[in-house]
User: Fold this.
Amino acid sequence: SSFLNNIRSNYSGARASPLGGSSGAGAGAGGGGTGDSKGNAFLVPGATMATILMLGALHARRLYEDKKIEEKREKGIELEFHPDIKASFLGVLPLRSISRAWGSFMSLEIPVWMRPYAYKAWARAFHSNLEEAALPLEEYTSLQDFFVRSLKEGCRPIDPDPCCLVSPVDGTVLRFGELKGNRGMIEQVKGHSYSVPALLGNNSLLPMEPEGKNESKEEAVGDKSDKSWLRVSLASPKLRENVSASPMKGLYYCVIYLKPGDYHRIHSPADWNATVRRHFAGRLFPVNERATRTIRNLYVENERVVLEGIWKEGFMALAAVGATNIGSIELFIEPELRTNKPKKKLFPTEPPEERVYDPEGLGLRLEKGKEVAVFNMG
Amino acid sequence: STVVLIFQAPTANTPEGSSSSSDYRFCVKQGDRVRVGQALGRWKEE
Assistant:
């Protein structure tokens, strides 16, 4: 409407100008001024409209593509890894700095009267359940504060069965299974896998056994036509799989994706002792469904914190992988840990920063269902 | 954000390819929505 008002006022101004100008010099100056203001008046709304149209077109295209993908999924067709140019472009963006700037912006205090509107809008956009929030909306000072909100007592009952492992987060199960048949590889998406030792770190306590020991049996278990585990990227030596050993029998994995509207605190999946913490200062690629199909070694490249330890059944590791704008992972058992800090090198290759908890004892005790960490914006 | 959980769980010493009730079994499916505290998998104590 402002665009139309501008056109209307300019049009009427242009018509009024020759009538209003009585002196020759004044009329000349006025005429020239009218021409300039007309150009300026059209420039901003025109550019805005063009931008809105372009964004609308891109959004419509994306919705169309997503719909096609959804149709494929309904037909039972598994989506394959397919790198694209847009994903490559993300690699050159300063996503860590962008995320820190985003975190600072989201930490700005919102006026009290505006808070319920802001958080309700967020909840509507990202499908969050506001009824579960522990505090009244007015008490969350910023969107960051709201994003890491805790929940009301009893909202997340912990399964009491001693013979079960519970979900550490709210989210969507992307992948799960046993590592044995995959030689220490987890399929990111059909056609591309990443190495678990690369995810956890070379010093990982992951129980391994010599590769040749049960080779014939492994070949029989695996599907010979599915060679996706072979196609791991060789771009970086740190990502190569360890070919001399494979994980022991009875090692399982579960990958859970948290959407922006999900509850973002991480709880302990069992009673266990965390013995080591590793912080990998990596990239901050998005980790949504599209990114998993287009970016190689997503979880191995991204900023993450890995907790390793022992539970009653053996080894346990929990890797909290950051994403664009959510690169700040806070550990309640180690509040001084800071992730997504500014780096001096553009392409750093430094090893992960490691800390051993209680080297003389059994590590730090984590109780099933208790809060362990939180994903912060920034 | 994403969480990757890797863990050892009970497996029975049965012939390759067969499974036992004491084996760890996931009780979720790919694409399922899970919540904190919900069981991901179970096994039976022998």
